[in-house]
Design goal:
The protein is an alpha/beta fold. Helices cover 41% and strands 17% of the residues. The protein contains 7 helices and 7 strands. Strands 3-2-1-4-5-6-7 form a 7-stranded parallel beta sheet, with helices on both faces.
């Protein structure tokens, strides 16, 4: 059975994807700093993507595993503040989780793909990058970095028959967006081509497409849910 690794599985989109990808016949390994509070059916491994030693420790367990098929870098954090009032610790946490954590995980999963000669990597950006969302400059910078990294690493991994793509979604109902005023959410949605709020199922459908054999020549792309 092919294995899919999902970071940020303790809640939100990561938890939702980890739970639902299992239904497609994959074995899922979920990574997070904390165990999910809700009931889960995937295999959970404690891992802090900000900490290279933690990432390396997990992936060392599976580096000889030929069944690893995909990595989903879902782990992410945000903080809605003007840069002037954003503490250095918050800046470090956003960049370390969203960008550096993604790079660490891709680096450490590569030995699996060298052996299997096939795979999928799905990174997560955000619609906020496209519109330069005010009050989220550090978050936007981290996710823009993810997009650039995706395009570059896709070229490195193409000879191994591994595709690397990115998914960018607008505001979805999660803990990250619950505290954002509804009027502000609506203003963002109105900048999408499809003026409707996206949900977790929309992301799942896109993930399924990328994981399928039909997408074996789609790489280095950024799938914008809702369009821009």
């Amino acid at each position: 059975m092919s294995k899919v690794i999902v970071t940020g599985c303790s809640s939100g989109i990561g938890y939702y994807l980890a739970e639902n990808i299992i239904k497609s016949g994959h074995k899922v390994i979920g990574l997070a700093r904390n165990e999910p509070k809700e009931k889960y059916s995937f295999n959970f491994e404690k891992c802090d993507v900000r900490d290279y030693s933690s990432v390396k420790k997990f992936f060392s367990k599976i580096k000889k595993d030929n069944d690893v098929y995909a990595l989903l870098n879902v782990a992410g954090v945000a903080s809605m503040n003007l840069l002037f009032s954003t503490p250095k610790e918050t800046i470090d946490n956003i960049i370390s989780t969203n960008l550096v954590g993604t790079i660490y995980c891709v680096k450490e999963v590569m030995p699996c793909f060298v052996k299997s000669r096939i795979g999928r990597i799905i990174n997560f950006s955000a619609f906020a990058v496209k519109i330069g969302l005010q009050g989220e400059s550090v978050y936007v910078a981290s996710k823009a970095g993810v997009e650039g990294f995706t395009r570059s690493i896709a070229r490195e991994l193409a000879p191994l028959n591994v595709t690397v793509n990115c998914i960018s979604a607008g505001p979805i109902k999660t803990k990250l967006t619950n505290k954002v005023p509804a009027s502000y959410i609506e203003k963002i949605i109105q900048q999408q081509i499809i003026n409707k709020q996206c949900d977790k199922e929309d992301i799942l459908k896109c993930v399924k497409l990328i994981l399928s054999e039909d997408s074996n020549k789609i790489t280095g792309e950024n799938f914008i849910i809702g369009g821009y």
